[in-house]
Specification:
alpha+beta, 34% helix, six-stranded antiparallel sheet
């Protein structure tokens, strides 16, 4: 007895899709690994560039600090809306919120910020330290080894850098003039005076200062206009209620 033979049939569309799906699902890890090995230097270069950028940002970018504080605003006035609050509920709450907005406006006002800047004369001179390669710069406050003494800001040229290069515990080079550079050898404590400046430079701690020639010992300072400082701090001042419903 012979088995019936059927003619061979071409695979249908469904079978073709199944075979195609199976070939797409198969991942040739060996092929991708060989591609990675043959192009390893591109990955190394990319990693090196990324690490260099990260290091540069962390090393030379200016450090920015922020400070926050809470302020309680209390209205001690009695009368007025307090007397009519039983008749018109909510009047006292409206007055308190209005008083809060007024106080926030006062804190942002130019006059108040100008008075604050005037009471902080150490802010009128901005000190900057320069790295050994002349690239990195960092703003300094009380950790700078010298202080600039002056009689009046009216005798100073604002927003004009004055460079100082410390040579020893007694003398330094003063560089002024911008493009028309002028180098003057000075002693700490001596007064410097020209058409644009009049000041003297003294060591912050003359007894404890130790000159280290391995350091950069290069700085520059700028006389800042108080009006400009007041507007700068006004823009940076962020005032908001602790809670949106707070009054």
């Amino acid at each position: 007895m012979t088995n019936p033979q059927y003619p061979e049939q071409e695979p249908g569309p469904f079978l073709n899709k199944a075979l195609s799906f199976q070939s797409e699902e198969g991942i040739d890890f060996k092929r991708y690994f060989s591609l990675f090995i043959s192009n390893w230097y591109w990955f190394a270069i990319t990693l090196f560039i990324a690490l260099s950028i990260s290091y540069s940002i962390n090393r030379w970018s200016e450090k920015v600090a922020s400070i926050s504080s809470s302020l309680l605003i209390k209205d001690d006035q009695i009368g007025g809306s307090a007397q009519i609050d039983p008749i018109f509920p909510g009047t006292e709450a409206f007055k308190t919120r209005q008083n809060l907005r007024n106080e926030m406006g006062i804190l942002r006002s130019y006059n108040l910020n100008k008075r604050v800047i005037d009471s902080l004369p150490e802010f009128h001179v901005e000190y900057v330290g320069v790295g050994r390669r002349g690239i990195a710069e960092s703003r300094l406050y009380k950790n700078i080894p010298f202080i600039v003494l002056y009689d009046s800001l009216e005798r100073q040229l604002f927003n004009n850098p004055v460079t100082i290069k410390i040579e020893s515990s007694e003398e330094y080079f003063l560089i002024t003039g911008g493009k028309d550079e002028r180098i003057t050898e000075m002693l700490f404590g001596d007064e410097y005076s020209d058409d644009n400046f009049r000041f003297s430079i003294v060591l912050r701690d003359s007894a404890g200062f130790v000159y280290d020639e391995e350091k950069s010992n290069k700085y520059y300072f700028i006389f800042m206009r108080p009006e400009t400082l007041a507007n700068q701090y006004r823009r940076k001042l962020n005032i908001r209620p602790i809670d949106e419903d707070a009054s």
